[in-house]
TrEMBL record:
Annotated ranges, domain BD-FAE-like: 74-272
Species of origin: Hymenobacter ginkgonis
Signal peptide bounds: 1-20
Protein name, as recorded: Prolyl oligopeptidase family serine peptidase
UniProt GO molecular function: hydrolase activity
Keyword terms: Hydrolase, Signal
InterPro entries xref list: AB_hydrolase_fold (IPR029058), BD-FAE-like_dom (IPR049492), GDXG_lipolytic_enzyme (IPR050300)
């Protein structure tokens, strides 16, 4: 078998205002300060007083954030000449223990801007019994609130409120897939009537299933604890939650991923097909886990395949 991407593509059919309070530090390759929006204007739901403090550590692959208390969206806007009204909320990965916010967040946001797509990097709360009454819903609360907030701010940023997608890497892919399959019953005590359904999903080497055979043990334990019930495991095994209303989905995975088995993407793709949801999946023979935008084992660039997919579905049309 030649070392080239395996493409599986079916059904490519069309498918209270907050102000930025601070700015994100600029990356070494990008001197532009970015507005940072707090997700919540008042008290943060599913939170309780604690001594937990956010930490940020720079490692070889970039910044890793943990113990998030104040969830935010960092805003990356395309130039007015390129802007097409589509936006994507990005959920970095990190096993529900940390956020790889550079190479699975800011770097991807800048590349989306080149397509004319606005990007919002979500710093979501990671499950923590010390600071959350119910740690299993805190990340999803934040993802759903991010969708509400971008929809509310659409006019300010010149966005189409019906063209807001959700992208996730690894455990962030689990969060995005959860948001894309659990939108009919939003979590929280007062979810309101605003839609929390993304227009499309983009899932990169995602954790999908919490079943014993496919799970990423760290992600499942961090979100649900060491002894989750059978009902919890089923609820958060997103291949079992797909319906005909699940958004069109773009999937990328490496077959030699030893952290999150490639079967996670495959079972989600199969579930989408059973429900006639448009889907496209790219499987690379090699690449391992956590490669971000650059799978060094191939000259093929999945981000270019994504651009083609977005274009084919009309999301890059002005």
């Amino acid at each position: 078998m030649k070392k080239m991407a395996l493409l599986l593509a079916l059904g490519l059919g069309a498918s209270g205002s907050l102000l930025a309070q601070t700015t994100a530090p600029a990356a070494a390759t990008d001197a532009t300060p970015r507005p940072v929006l707090p997700l919540y204007s008042g008290s943060i739901p599913d939170s309780k007083p604690s001594r937990v403090q956010e930490t940020s550590v720079t490692e070889g692959a970039g910044v890793r954030i943990s113990n998030v208390i104040q969830p935010t969206l960092t805003v990356f806007m395309p130039s007015k000449e390129k802007a097409n009204g589509t936006s994507v909320i990005i959920c970095p990965g990190g096993g529900y223990a940390r956020l790889a916010i550079d190479h699975e967040g800011y770097d991807v946001a800048r590349r989306l801007n080149e397509m004319g797509v606005a990007a919002f990097v979500l710093k979501y709360r990671l499950p923590n019994d010390q600071s959350q009454p119910d740690k299993s819903i805190a990340p999803l609360l934040d993802a759903q609130q991010a969708l509400r907030l971008v929809r509310e701010q659409a006019g300010k940023y010149g966005l189409n409120p019906e063209r807001i997608g959700l992208m996730g890497f690894s455990a962030g892919g689990h969060l995005a897939a959860t948001a894309g399959t659990h939108f009919a019953q939003p979590v929280g005590t007062n979810p309101g009537s605003a839609s929390v359904r993304p227009a499309f999903l983009v899932l990169l080497y995602p954790v999908i299933s919490f079943s014993d055979s496919l799970k990423h043990a760290g992600s499942r334990e961090n979100l649900l604890g060491r002894t989750p019930s059978a009902d919890q495991v089923r609820l958060y095994s997103n291949e079992l939650q797909v319906s005909a209303q699940t958004p069109p989905t773009f999937l990328v995975h490496a077959e030699d991923d030893k952290t999150v088995p490639v079967q996670n993407s495959i079972v989600f793709y199969q579930a989408l097909r059973r429900h006639n949801v448009p889907a496209e999946m790219h499987l690379y023979p090699q690449g391992g886990h956590g490669f971000g935008m650059n799978n060094k084992t191939t000259k093929d660039q999945w981000i270019e395949r994504l651009q083609n997919w977005l274009d084919a579905n009309g999301w890059l049309t002005k």
